[in-house]
Amino acid sequence: AQVSVKDSTGKSYSVKILEKDSDSLELRVKGLKLGKRYTVKVSGVRSGGSGSYTSASRTFTAIDD
Question: Which of 31, 32, 57, 58 gives 62 a disulfide partner, CB atoms 3.0 to 4.6 angstroms apart?
Answer without folding.
Answer: 32
